[in-house]
Amino acid sequence: MWAVFAAMALCTVFAVVIAMAQVVVTRHRAGAAADLAALAAADTALQGAPAACRAAREVAAAQDAHLVRCTVRGDIADVTARARGGPFAPDIRSRAGPAATTGRAAEPIPERADPARQ
């Protein structure tokens, strides 16, 4: 009789672990889709917000996700994507745009002597 309860307990633990793994995988899929969609929107932001959001929607769809929201202000894209995995459908927000400039040039990389020439 105790073997039946032990087997039921193991099955329950196994089901919980599988459900948690599904949540994590779905969240990562939504995050990847949101990141890629934001990059696509930022890449086409100069063509206007409709074109940028269309590109983001296409990229999200290619990742089996749904674009929930897309906003383009200047050259910054802010998107939210949703991926479905079983009963779970997390919404993940992502932003993309050009790197911030500090007004200073980067320090030059010093040249190293080539060990093959010495």
Automatic annotation (TrEMBL):
Keywords: Signal. Residues 109-118 have a biased composition (Basic and acidic residues). Residues 87-118 are annotated as: Disordered. Residues 95-108 have a biased composition (Low complexity). The keyword Signal applies. It comes from the Bacteria. Residues 1-21 form the signal peptide. Residues 1-43 form the Putative Flp pilus-assembly TadG-like N-terminal domain. InterPro entries: Rv3654c-like, Tad_N. Coiled coil: none annotated. This is Putative Flp pilus-assembly TadG-like N-terminal domain-containing protein. It comes from Streptomyces chrestomyceticus JCM 4735.
